[in-house]
Amino acid sequence: MAEQDFSKKEKNYYSDIPQKSEAFFLKGSNAYDWGMKNRLARIFNPRSGKTVMLAFDHGYFQGPTTGLERVDITIRPLIPHADALMLTRGILRSVIEPSVTNSVVMRASGGPSILKELSDERIAVDMEDALRMNVSAVAVQVFIGGHFETQTVNNMTRLVDMGMRYGIPVLGVTAVGTELTRDARYIGLATRILAELGASFVKTYFVPRFEQVAAACPVPIVIAGGKKLPEREALQMARDAIDQGASGVDMGRNIFQSDAPVAMIGAVRKVVHEGASVKDAYEYYLDMKKK
Ligand code: R5P
Q1: Ligand 1 geometric centre to CA of 161 (Å)
Q2: Which residues pair with 52 in a beta bridge?
Q3: Which residues line ligand 1 (CB under 6 A)?
Q4: 241-277 burial by CB neighbour count: b if 16+ within 10 A, else e?
Q5: Distance, CA 47 to ligand 1 centroid (Å)?
Q6: Which of 2-11, 156-165, 264-273 has the lowest mean pLDDT?
Q7: Can you give the pTM of this predicted structure?
């Protein structure tokens, strides 16, 4: 306990300076409570307003994905370069050092493997366990137009309700089945539904006319990387997405399957946080690759 204040120094209440009350920096997030905003500010950098999330949760339905056979070896070197880690609770507990300071976005839905109907997902993490692991958000796949559409929407809305109780944001992930067209019309429909039903932020794919998708979505959108592309093309996609309204990337294979993953995540950071051109970011990638 502090000793009693016997200071002779004159007190200063700065009565001529009104206390500032600033709007929260993130799109659509101003009405949340402190804990929710603080968690979002651990995912999205308050200076740039953007995020580079490193996605390596692919094993939750497809097992040891190429590049993720040994997460302890391939992902560890990338961790200091990511703002947020998107992963499963199994990998978090078994492989990730508790001393990391990155925010964690935890995959909280699952069920079917690649051998079954993928949309038949259920909630896969209890919110109390997510809290125990100090996550900054939970992520749930929603299959708009999919076979189990209503069930996956219900997974998300239940997580949103539980998340609101504890101040945990929910990342709604638009899942695109092989039968659905990946275009602005579909992605615009799916992202808007997820935001309307309470997702604090949404993850989807970059598509032509993405600026319309971003404009119609009242919460931040992060884009998934998708299948591995040549590095320059992946950087171009990130540049275009940010320029057209994305608030960051949640990229996996285009980073961990790159020939030089550390150089690649550094180049992605340049695009997302520093506004670098594709040319400059690609040159950075080539330089870092040599080192
Ligand atoms: C997919 O299984 C996961 O939800 C990934 O987090 C997501 O697809 C992003 O990873 P990638 O950039 O490899 O598409």
Answers
A1: 25
A2: 249
A3: 55, 57-58, 86, 173, 224-226, 250-254
A4: bbebbbbbbbbbbbbbbbebbbbbbbbbbbbbbeebe
A5: 26
A6: 2-11
A7: 0.95
